[in-house]
Structure formats: structure tokens, C-alpha cells
Design a protein that fits this description.
The protein is mainly beta. The protein is built from six helices and 48 strands. Among the domains are: about 500 residues, no CATH class; about 80 residues, no CATH class.
Length: about 850
């Protein structure tokens, strides 16, 4: 006989009983505290079973320490050390931020061996609409950050960050999701500011190694539905990916002289992925390296100077599957140099930053691609059971980005006029950037082979095989070398006024760039009310405007020479010369007279000291307008079709989030829950927003309706319900337990299927009868995901005050489904998998 109880609210929400029990056991070990006072130590009677508990001040939590009502989350070295992954990424820290969402690809098998950081959205912004700063200097990539196809002809896979920084080199991370101060600009999502480590007062170093393997992963394979009556063969189950991944980190810091300090770091990550191509297994490899040198030294009695040099190259050696002679290499990342001087004056505190960055996104590949038919001398496709015998690659391509930037920031120490407290913060910045697109030689893509046993090639063996076959068409991508530049200027000022329990910050920011040519003025206004005057209950609000950045990929595309098509035939079995095909119409880009995309934000919230920690409740509403999208014309009289960029994109975000962070001695705990909704007109800047006008008709759920009646929700980075629980707690003197559990609710979206059906009957003026072609849309539901990661660390003291730490990281502890494979389709999902790490501190 089995006793059953009513399901608890967590079970009804989709949490499995095993997970509920584990969370209950872990949380039950935390002390229950009803209030926290600064630096309070609570000592129980000697006969009590509990140990002494130290309650940390709430301003040490990620929510604390912010006095101007900015929506900032600050993570210091403790949080970075406890919550970063064994792979060196900071994804574990960023998951602690409410309103920040990772994409669906973060749970796919490719994420196991891809060394690039996972993309994420902040407050409904697209992943490339965030601003990334390293030591105060932007490392945001504007070279086509949404490009994601490794085998693209005219492009290279991009990323929103131009450099990938290993977590071992990071000293602090700050994330702004709302009420962003006026000193930050060129974003419509959020701001992620990373500061590299500074040296301490004593020499210290560490060397660590971590690894994972494909045979440490529990895979689930799914095979698409099959109808036995269809006459087709049953589908074969997909194979599981094989890979190995390793990370090595060496870091050392030491005082220099009486007051200076030096940090040196070398970190490298590698992954190898075997893949079957043309019947044999070969490996594709990735490598990411981080080198950092940072010197910190005082300047007089009141100044502090930081100077850092960084080198962060990324390399990916690949091949095109089932294509002969197709090996190619993608290189990214680059160099950075920053200088930062902070000076505390009698009447003005000042900061001067100078940064120099260079990054690339390049490809080295065989020139020219041949899509041969399978014949007697060209038969590797037939032997590998592939339809054609393909050969070659898409040639060398170089895309470069270089920037020189400077910023001056000043702040008054604060004064008082009557009962009003006043503080000013203001500054200026300038940026010069150069972008380059280079293809050294013409690239030919040969297509549509014609098998002819009598063909005469006239000595041309490159694209014709004597008495076998010849190519009838080819696309020509001409050699090109385009360089464009961008100059940006910005001015900003904020004044913070305080009176009794009220505080208000009023700011303006002015931005101009010589590409869009717009003069953008953004207001930044926020305020707070200390309800009871004791700092325990604070109501916050803000009204702000943020202007986005000018993506220079548009300017490069507009200046590039378009590809064109050529064709040829034979005369008496002798191949003719290539001729220009004027019927197709090559593409050109047009980008002019556009507005800068912007986001208008309204934010209200409250912070409350609660249960020994800090609780935050906030509502953020964003209206994004003038977003970049494009339209496509028919062939024009000049023979070209045009991609015309426009400001027709728009989106809207509503987010309600709660978060609580607490610290109890060495125990760090956090919890957040977010409900959000993001509606959008287009996925990214290359999405044709007007492909289906709002007044046009589409086919949805068996009905012909207007497109404008569809409620379009963003497909990615937009789960409506997201929750996260994090805990880091010592178990005795040598064992540390780090736990992170994240819940993502069901997501229902409306998507275009790619199918077309006939609609209403239309009679033309000529009397001819035609039928509408209606795009088919359907509602797709993505199920709940519930993933728990656990890390166990054991620290063993060694001779001469050194320490050896072994770690076991178990991701997806309960082997839950990720639901990255749609129902009825073939695919592979990852379940539980392991990382092992060993670290030696000296």
C-alpha cells in the first residue's frame, strides 16, 4: 500500500520530487534569520548545537552597495570563484542575474565543445544589443555579430564579444539591467562590465587543469516519426557527438616595490571533435588563449594607475563535411591595451581611461568550390554515398576591427545647500574605429555540372573534365578590399540630489557618430525613497532612454562589390567561354538616412532587508523603436536587386522579477524568479521585417487571417518564467559545495513553417485566375526545463602553506531532458555530464 499526498506547489510547477527533496535538505541547513545588522555576530549558548554564525552586511551581496538607484548587480572575487564553471566561462555567475536569459542553444550538444561564451539577453534586448566592457573599454563586436554559419561564402561566424576572457583573470563583474547611469551608452539591452584582477599585498599563484570527455556525457537520442505505410525505409537513429575538452590556467600576482603590484596570467582552452567525412573520421579543433599582464602602481599620494596588456586569440580548425580538400581555419580574438588613472582631488575625483583594441574575424581556406557530378574519375562522393563529389572551399577572407578610445570621468565629493545634498558626475568620451573586409582573389563557386562523354575542354582542366563533364554556371565573388571608419563622441552629466529620505539622479547623455550622422540625446532619470529612514526599505524608480550602436557591418556591405553569375554551354561538344547572366540580378546593400535605434524604459521597484539578506522586486518595461531591419527589391533597371536597410523593426519587453541574496559566514545563497514577455517584429538586423506586411494574409490554425493579427513572441531568449537558486556552502574545513538550479517555464511561440498553401481565388483584369500564396504559421510549444548543477571541492593543505584542490562538477545532476529536440524529430540531447579539475595554489 502506498500513501500519496497532494502535490506541493513546486511539484505542480514541474519540479520533480527528487529535486524538491534535495533542495529541501540543502536549504534546511541554512540558518533562519529575521534581520541583519551591519557586521553583527550572533553567538548562541555554549550548549547549543549550531556553530557561531556571522551575518555579513547586506551591502556585500550583489544587490548591495548601490546608492543611486541604478539597476546594478556586482559580483566580486568570492562569487566569481564559487560560481564560475570548470570551463573558465562566467556563465554560472551571469545566471544569478534576474532578467538575463541564455538562448536555447546553451543546452545543445554543441555547447559542450564550443569554446565561445554563450550568448544571452538582458531585459529583452537581443544578444548583440548589450555593451561589453573590459577594464572600462568596449570589446563589443560590430563585425556582423549575428553571423553563425561556419561555411558561409562571404561571411565568418561572429560573436557579440570580440575577445573571450577566461574567468581566472577576472576580479569583478558588474551587470546593469535597468536604470543604467549616463556614463554607459550604445546599447538597448544591458551592460556587462568586467574588471581584471589586481595584485594583492603578498605573492600568490595557482596552476589548474580541468577536463571533460564525450564518454562522461549521458546522451539521449531521438528518431523522427515514421509511417510504416509510407513505403520509405525507417530512419536511422542519429549518432552521438564525440569530443574532448581541456583547460589549463597559470596565474601569478606579486607586489612590486613598496606599493605596486603585478598580475601575470596564461590560460588556454582546447576542444577536439571527431566527425565522419567522406567515410573516415577526422577531428575539428578549437583553441582559445588568454594572456594578461597588469601593473598597478600609485601615482603620488592620491592617484592609482592601472596598465594592462592582453592577448586573446581564438582559433578553429574545421572542414566542410563530405567535401574533399576543404580544410579551413577561422581565427578571431585579438589584442588589447588599457590604461586607467584614478585621482582623488580636493574638489574633484577624476578618472582617465585610454584603450587600444584590435580584433579579427578571418578565414584561411582553399580557393574555389566545385560541385562535381559523380563520374569515373570524380567518384569520392559515390564511394561515401553522397549525391555529388564536392571539392574545395570558399577562399581566404579577412575582417578586422581596430579601435582607439579615451574617456574622462569626474565626480564631486558631494556638498550641501541648506538641507539638500548635491553630487555631480560628468565626463566625455571619444572613439575612433576602423573596419576592413578583404578578399585577395576572385572566388568561383562552380555549380550545375553537365555530364557529357563527348565534351572537349580546350585544355581547361580546372572546371571541365575531358569527355566526362563541365560546369554550366558559376558565381563569381570578386576580389575586394574595403576599409571604413567610424568616429564617435559622447558627453554625459548626472546630478544626484538628496533631501531627507529622498534621492534623485537627473542625467543627460549626448552621442554622435559620423556613420548614422544623428545627434542623440538620452535622458537618464532615477530616484529612490528610504521609506523608514533606516535603509531597510527603499523604493526605486526610473525613466530612461538608451540609444543603440551603429553596426559597421552595414557600411562594409554597402561598400563591397556584389557577386555575379556567369553561364556557358557547348557548341558541337566544345565548351564556350563564360558569359554574364543578366537575368538573375546580383544583390547590393543600401544604407542611408536612418535613425539610431533606441529603447524607452520605465522601471519601478523596491529593495528590502529580509531574512539576513537583501530582497529586490522590480518591474521593467521597454519600448524599442527604429530597430534595424531590411526589405528586398525586385531586379532594378541597373540589373541589381537591393537589400534596403530600414528602421521598421520594433519590439516590446515587460519583465517582473524578484531576487534575494544573502551571506551567512562563508555561505552564499541567492534566489530569483522572473516573468517576462518579449514581442518583436523581426529576429535580427538581417530579418526582412516587411517580408509579410501586417496587412497581408497568412494561414494559421486552418484559417486565413491578417499577419497583423498574429501575436508574435520572440522565439529565443524569451522564456516567460525563469527561476534560479544558487548556494555555495562549506561542509567542514575542507569541503565546499556549490549548487545551482535553474527552471525555465513552458514557452509557446508562433513561427513560420516555411510551407505555402493556396488562399483565395483572384481574378486578374486580364481575366486570368490565380490563387493567393499564403505563408503557413503554426503554434509551437517548448516544454519546461529544470537543470541542476553541482560542484564538490576538496582542499588538501600541502607543505609550505600551499593548497591542492580537487573538484568534481556534475552538470544536469538529475539527468533531466533539455527538450532541444522537437517532438517527432531526430536529434540528440545531453543529460548528466562531468568535469574534473585539479588546482594547486602556492
Amino acid at each position: 500500500m502506498t500513501n500519496r499526498c497532494d502535490p506541493c506547489p513546486m511539484c505542480r510547477a514541474g519540479f520533480k520530487p527528487s529535486t524538491v527533496w534535495m533542495l529541501t535538505l540543502v536549504v534546511s541547513g541554512l540558518p533562519t534569520l529575521v534581520q541583519a545588522e551591519a557586521a553583527t555576530v550572533v553567538t548562541l549558548p555554549a550548549d547549543a548545537r549550531l556553530d557561531t554564525i556571522e551575518v555579513r552586511p547586506t551591502d556585500r551581496t550583489p544587490l548591495g552597495g548601490e546608492t543611486t538607484a541604478a539597476g546594478r548587480y556586482r559580483f566580486d572575487a568570492r562569487y566569481i570563484e564559487r560560481f564560475v564553471g570548470a570551463d573558465g566561462s562566467v556563465d554560472g555567475v551571469l545566471r544569478l542575474v534576474p532578467g538575463l536569459q541564455f538562448g536555447e542553444v546553451a543546452l545543445t550538444p554543441e555547447s559542450l565543445f564550443d569554446l565561445r561564451p554563450e550568448s544571452f539577453s538582458i531585459s529583452g534586448g537581443r544578444f548583440y544589443e548589450n555593451q561589453f566592457l573590459l577594464d572600462g573599454v568596449s570589446i563589443s563586436n560590430r563585425l556582423d555579430p549575428a553571423a553563425n554559419t561556419p561555411n558561409a561564402i562571404d561571411d565568418i561566424p561572429g560573436h557579440e564579444q570580440s575577445q573571450f576572457i577566461d574567468s581566472a583573470l577576472i576580479g569583478e563583474i558588474r551587470v546593469f539591467d535597468s536604470n543604467v547611469p549616463a556614463e554607459y551608452s550604445r546599447f538597448t539591452g544591458g551592460v556587462v562590465e568586467v574588471e581584471t584582477r589586481r595584485a594583492g599585498s603578498t605573492p600568490e599563484g595557482s596552476v589548474s587543469y580541468s577536463a571533460t570527455r564525450s564518454n562522461w556525457v549521458s546522451y539521449r537520442t531521438f528518431t523522427r516519426d515514421w509511417d510504416p505505410d509510407s513505403g520509405a525505409l525507417p530512419p536511422e537513429p542519429p549518432g552521438t557527438p564525440e569530443f574532448s575538452r581541456d583547460r589549463l590556467a597559470l596565474n601569478y600576482s606579486t607586489p612590486v616595490g613598496e606599493a605596486s603590484g603585478l598580475v601575470l596570467g596564461i590560460n588556454q582552452s582546447r576542444s577536439t571533435t571527431p566527425e565522419v567525412t567522406l567515410g573516415r573520421s577526422r577531428s575539428q579543433e578549437q583553441e582559445n588563449t588568454n594572456l594578461l599582464m597588469k601593473l598597478t602602481t600609485p601615482e603620488g599620494d592620491r592617484g592609482l594607475l592601472d596598465f594592462s596588456l592582453g592577448y586573446a586569440p581564438y582559433r578553429n580548425e574545421r572542414f566542410i563535411t563530405d567535401v574533399k580538400d576543404s580544410d579551413f581555419t577561422i581565427e578571431g580574438g585579438g589584442y588589447s591595451m588599457t590604461g586607467n588613472l584614478e585621482y582623488a582631488g580636493d574638489r574633484l575625483d577624476q578618472q582617465f581611461r585610454v584603450g587600444l583594441n584590435y580584433s579579427e574575424n578571418s578565414r584561411s581556406a582553399p580557393k574555389d568550390f566545385f560541385n562535381w557530378a559523380n563520374t569515373r574519375s570524380v567518384d569520392w562522393g559515390r564511394r561515401a554515398d553522397v549525391g555529388n563529389s564536392r571539392q574545395g572551399g570558399f577562399g581566404d577572407l579577412d575582417k578586422e576591427q581596430a579601435s582607439l578610445s579615451g574617456r574622462w570621468l569626474a565626480q564631486t565629493p558631494g556638498g550641501q545647500v541648506g538641507q539638500v545634498r548635491i553630487r555631480h558626475r560628468f565626463g566625455a568620451e571619444v572613439n575612433h574605429q576602423r573596419y576592413r573586409f578583404q578578399r585577395d582573389e576572385d572566388l568561383y563557386i562552380f555549380q550545375n555540372p553537365v555530364v557529357n562523354s563527348e565534351v572537349q575542354c580546350r585544355g581547361n582542366s580546372d572546371d571541365c573534365l575531358q569527355r566526362e563533364q563541365y560546369f554550366s554556371t558559376r558565381n563569381v565573388h570578386p576580389a575586394d578590399d574595403v576599409e571604413v571608419s567610424l568616429n564617435e563622441t559622447g558627453l554625459f552629466a548626472e546630478t544626484t540630489l538628496g533631501w531627507q529620505r529622498l534621492s534623485g539622479t537627473f542625467g543627460l547623455r549626448y552621442d554622435h557618430d559620423d556613420f548614422l550622422g544623428n545627434h542623440d540625446v538620452a535622458y537618464r532619470t532615477r530616484g529612490s525613497l528610504d521609506v523608514f529612514g533606516d535603509g531597510r526599505t527603499v523604493v526605486r524608480a526610473g525613466v530612461n532612454r538608451y540609444y543603440g550602436a551603429a553596426l559597421l557591418t552595414y557600411k562594409l556591405r554597402e561598400a563591397r562589390a556584389p557577386f555575379y553569375r556567369e553561364y556557358r554551354g557547348t557548341t558541337q561538344n566544345i565548351v564556350r567561354d563564360w558569359e554574364l547572366d543578366s537575368g538573375e540580378g546580383s544583390f547590393r546593400y543600401v544604407f542611408h538616412d536612418l535613425n539610431t535605434p533606441y529603447s524607452d524604459e520605465v522601471m519601478v521597484g523596491v529593495q528590502q532587508v529580509l531574512l539576513g539578506g537583501l530582497f529586490n522586486l522590480q518591474l521593467v518595461q521597454r519600448e524599442n523603436r527604429d530597430e534595424f531591419a531590411r526589405t528586398t527589391t525586385a531586379v532594378q533597371p541597373d540589373g541589381y536587386r537591393y537589400y534596403i536597410m530600414n528602421n521598421e523593426g520594433r519590439s516590446r519587453y515587460r519583465g517582473l522579477s524578484t531576487a534575494w541574496f544573502g551571506e551567512f559566514g562563508q555561505t552564499l545563497v541567492g534566489l530569483h524568479l522572473t516573468y517576462s514577455e518579449t514581442r518583436t517584429s523581426n529576429a535580427d538586423y538581417d530579418d526582412p521585417v516587411d517580408a509579410t506586411g501586417s496587412g497581408a494574409y497568412v494561414f494559421y490554425q486552418g484559417r486565413r487571417i491578417r499577419y497583423g493579427e498574429l501575436d508574435i513572441l520572440r522565439e529565443d531568449f524569451s522564456r516567460p518564467w525563469v527561476a534560479n537558486f544558487s548556494l555555495s556552502r562549506p561542509m567542514g574545513e575542507r569541503v565546499m559545495v556549490d549548487l545551482n538550479t535553474r527552471y525555465r517555464g513552458r514557452h509557446a511561440i508562433i513561427t513560420r513553417t516555411g510551407l505555402v498553401v493556396e488562399g483565395d481565388r483572384i481574378e486578374l483584369p486580364s481575366g486570368e485566375v490565380v490563387y493567393e500564396s499564403l505563408d503557413v504559421y503554426e503554434r509551437e510549444s517548448r516544454p519546461v526545463t529544470f537543470i541542476t548543477d553541482l560542484r564538490l571541492s576538496y582542499a588538501q593543505p600541502m607543505p609550505r602553506s600551499t593548497l591542492l584542490t580537487a573538484q568534481l562538477q556534475i552538470n544536469n545532476l538529475f539527468n533531466e531532458r533539455t527538450h532541444t529536440v522537437a517532438s517527432g524529430q531526430s536529434g540528440v540531447e545531453i543529460g548528466r555530464y562531468y568535469w574534473v579539475s585539479l588546482k594547486y595554489d602556492f
